[in-house]
């Protein structure tokens, strides 16, 4: 049982990617009911509270923090095995709030996503530093858009050249796990726009295989982390 909480308050894209655009949150005696993609996957996002997906959310920190607290307190997830929190890029109010509110729950850790070029790695190093400062464990780093294999000639091209060694070199320098590299696949963007599962639509894609390996490594990490707590 998986719960997906979207706390990208100003840019909630999860409803679109999950095929849930236009859905609304319902209240019951036990709280807000998440919107379900499948029986074992529930979603909550500020996107469900907007009258239109084009509406801008222009909120300062305290109002964002209040909604995040309400999501954690009032959503009736039921019994879940994993809570996945999707955050915006950077180290802003949303990140501080979620770490603070979940501090007593023994969070397994953060999965940090980057692209290979140095301009992205600069921001990611700041996020890693943030995790260290707030004592949030780092499960590992995922390198997204890592090369492109032409479907016709099968030649691999680096669309975003790793001029300083990419995520692999950064992880070596900082002693952090590299969970995997996800190659560029145009089908990923198409699947997200249609709100359909890329893994189901392209089961043989190199990106799908990479996703599955990354998921397995995260599950193994979480299981080991829970054993240490127990």
TrEMBL record:
InterPro entries named in the record: Mrp-like_CS, Mrp/NBP35_ATP-bd, P-loop_NTPase, YlxH/NBP35
Keyword set includes Nucleotide-binding: yes
Keywords: 4Fe-4S, ATP-binding, Cytoplasm, Iron, Iron-sulfur, Metal-binding, Nucleotide-binding
Location of the protein in the cell: Cytoplasm; Nucleus
CDD domains: Mrp_NBP35
GO biological process: iron-sulfur cluster assembly
GO molecular function: 4 iron, 4 sulfur cluster binding; ATP binding; ATP-dependent FeS chaperone activity; metal ion binding
SUPFAM superfamilies per the UniProt record, alphabetical: P-loop containing nucleoside triphosphate hydrolases (SSF52540)
Gene3D superfamilies per the UniProt record, alphabetical: P-loop containing nucleotide triphosphate hydrolases
Recorded GO CC terms: cytosol; nucleus
Cited function: Component of the cytosolic iron-sulfur (Fe/S) protein assembly (CIA) machinery. Required for maturation of extramitochondrial Fe-S proteins. The NUBP1-NUBP2 heterotetramer forms a Fe-S scaffold complex, mediating the de novo assembly of an Fe-S cluster and its transfer to target apoproteins. Implicated in the regulation of centrosome duplication. Negatively regulates cilium formation and structure.
Full protein name: Cytosolic Fe-S cluster assembly factor NUBP1
